[in-house]
Amino acid sequence: MKFYYHASLALSLFVSIVSNAQGTEQKKENPDSSFEFQVEQFSDIKVLRYQIPGWENLTLKEQKLVYYLTQAGTSGRDIMWDQNYKYNLKIRKALENIYLNYKGDKNTADWNNFEIYLKRVWFSNGIHHHYSNDKIMPGFSKTYFTKISKDTKTILDPAIVTILFDGQDAKKVNLDESKGLVEGSAINFYGSGITHKEVEAFYAEKKSPDATKPYSFGLNSKLVRNKKGQLEEKVWKSNGMYGAAIDKIIYWLEKAKTVAENTKQAEALGLLIDYYKTGSLKTWDDYNIAWLQATEGNIDYINGFIEVYNDPVGYRGSYETVVQIKDFDMSKKMEVLSKSAQWFEDNSPLDPSHKKKNVVGVSYKTVIVAGEAGDASPSTPIGVNLPNADWIRATYGSKSVSLGNLVDAYGKSAGKGRLEEFVNDSEELERAKKYSEIGDKLHTALHEVVGHASGRINDGVGTPKETLKSYASTMEEGRADLVALFYLYNSKIQELGLVDDWKKVGMETYDSYLRNGLLTQLIRIKEGESIEEAHMRNRQWVSSWVFEKGLKDNVVEKISRNGKTYLNINDYEKLHSLFGQLLKEVQRIKSEGDYEAAKALVENYGVKVDQKLHAEIIERNKQFPSAPYSGFVNPFLTPKLDAKGEIISIEVIQPKTFAEQMLYYSKNFSFLPDVN
């Protein structure tokens, strides 16, 4: 599971020469200089840089491990592009050819809009918006595109060109059941003509050898119809679908294994390699268990087909990788949460039958990201809790990480003024200025460490993707949010030494959560639209539910001043109680697999938007130049070689522009055919 930065809302690689596809000079990172966090801004997107503090303190062996792991991650980036849409690789190739070879007038509005369109496609790993899932519409005409394609001798199928400009494949992930969850989604996880009902029937026949240890069926495959009209899986593995890229991933993972920090880490890498070679879901489970138990050392990583948010029915995992270095200082401070996980479980408002009697092996670290790719780049989470399989988490625990240097980069690049516009009064503003940073960090930590680790599914009840179906992701994210919210307003976090005033931290967190869930996150969607993204949905249904249930006692009120809407919390104690009540109900829904209750909660509270309020929020936000979405370019890790070709050092070099990195990736890490 991932936790995304909610306020403003990559992969390091070998560079043999300090130049890029456009011939621009790269910037060597100097930790003593004034670091420029922002690269550029376009449309609704801000592209940032991040630093790798402490890189010089790693041994050469550790630096090699990071380098090999990031190379492995980048090698699979085109898998994500193809997963997102069947024509994405063809489209990217055509757009980049135009960009590199067009010799015409580049001072026109049309060319400017073409560049913006290409950058938006780069940022989203395809032609659908990374957050809303809507198709990104060009700001130039089909006629202009045809002209510049001809001028640059760019070939793209006319049918695909038409798709860029019309209403076909408008939604990458459709969650409107009336349109068909699979049928209405452009995501490239299912063959043409396959229906939601067929998918459910296909997987209903799948049985694991041990029902208590269910396989993650569908996680690493595309479901297609064969020549006989029967459904079958095209597995993502060596000598299978995406085999050319996966073989490159394996190549670099094998190098990483040779410089592993310890035996357990090497064993886990070996199992990951075997998984990529065979596609075995049993091996995937074995790998996750081994990865969980490899807790020693300074370097860790995430690599595989992991999150299922992009599958409208929650089976298939998007390719993702993050390479990370332990932040020793912050990890030590936050380790107390892991050690107290059982206390949080025992004292939660859940029904006793839905509590875990023994919360196992929750490890929590603040880490320094050294590279990301696939589903984690350019748009990135700030916290991750894995693995996702409930039975593994219950038996072996989980790893939770907070991506500390990315959080730092977000904070140092944040736009000014938006907070002042939307807070209700000066008291709320002062709390935010003083406590929002620690509140955000604790919310992430509690969400990942305690939230995702809490609760149990009743015996005999299927996995959430089987029982809650398309609502599983938003329900799980909302459940973890509720755990964090419940405990952020609790003296325990002060007893643990994490804050100096638990009540004010809790009050600020409640202020900011409801403000975001009911007001400010609306800047991310177009007027007239409903909410589709799982995290946005969960923030709204949590906030809307407690707002409605608290109306009788005026727990939270909406205030209108000068045509502007504000929120005011009148009773934080009662709001805390409401969060606890909702948490208890959401856990019941998960534990019992109550699909109808999940559907009612999400559809009634998390999807529809007050259109008058939405228009107001959009209008109020126009004064702020800072884009609502942010993401990152990744530092280049640049090896220096001796006369024998051996690595003697690795430098961190920052890319100057977004285009530089994207073009370098396309030139050096395009291992897949245009059609897979």
Please give a structural write-up.
The chain has 676 residues and is an alpha+beta fold. The protein is built from 25 helices and 16 strands. The longest helix is centred in the middle third of the chain and has 26 residues. Helix 18 packs across helix 21 and helix 21 crosses helix 23.
Count of DSSP strands: 16
Strand order of the largest sheet: 1-10-11-9-8-7
Rg of Cα set: 24 Å
Strand content: 5-15%
Biggest pleated sheet: 6 strands, mixed
Shape: globular
Helix share of residues? 40-55%
Return residue spans where pLDDT drops below 50 for at least 5 consecutive residues. 6-32
Number of helices: 25
**Mean pLDDT over the residues:** 92
Distance separating the two termini: 27 Å
Structural class estimated from helices and strands:
alpha+beta
Feature tags:
alpha+beta; 6-stranded mixed beta sheet; 676 residues; 3-stranded antiparallel beta sheet; 16 strands
In brief, what are we looking at here?
This protein is 45% helix and 14% strand. With 676 residues, the protein is an alpha+beta fold.
Write the SSE topology.
Blueprint (H helix, E strand, L loop, with lengths): L1 E3 L22 E2 L9 E5 L2 E4 L11 H16 L1 H8 L3 H14 L7 H16 L17 H10 L6 H8 L30 H9 L16 E5 L5 E5 L7 H16 L4 H16 L2 H13 L5 E7 L13 E8 L1 H12 L1 H6 L15 E13 L6 E6 L3 H7 L1 E6 H10 L4 H5 L3 H26 L12 H4 L4 H17 L3 H4 L6 H17 L15 H16 L6 E6 L2 E6 L2 H21 L2 H13 L3 H11 L7 E4 L3 E6 L5 E8 L3 H11 L8
Parallel strand pairs: 4-14, 9-11
Antiparallel strand pairs: 1-10, 2-16, 3-4, 5-6, 7-8, 8-9, 10-11, 12-13, 15-16
Helix pairs in contact: 1-8, 3-4, 8-9, 9-10, 16-18, 16-20, 18-21, 18-22, 20-21, 21-22, 21-23
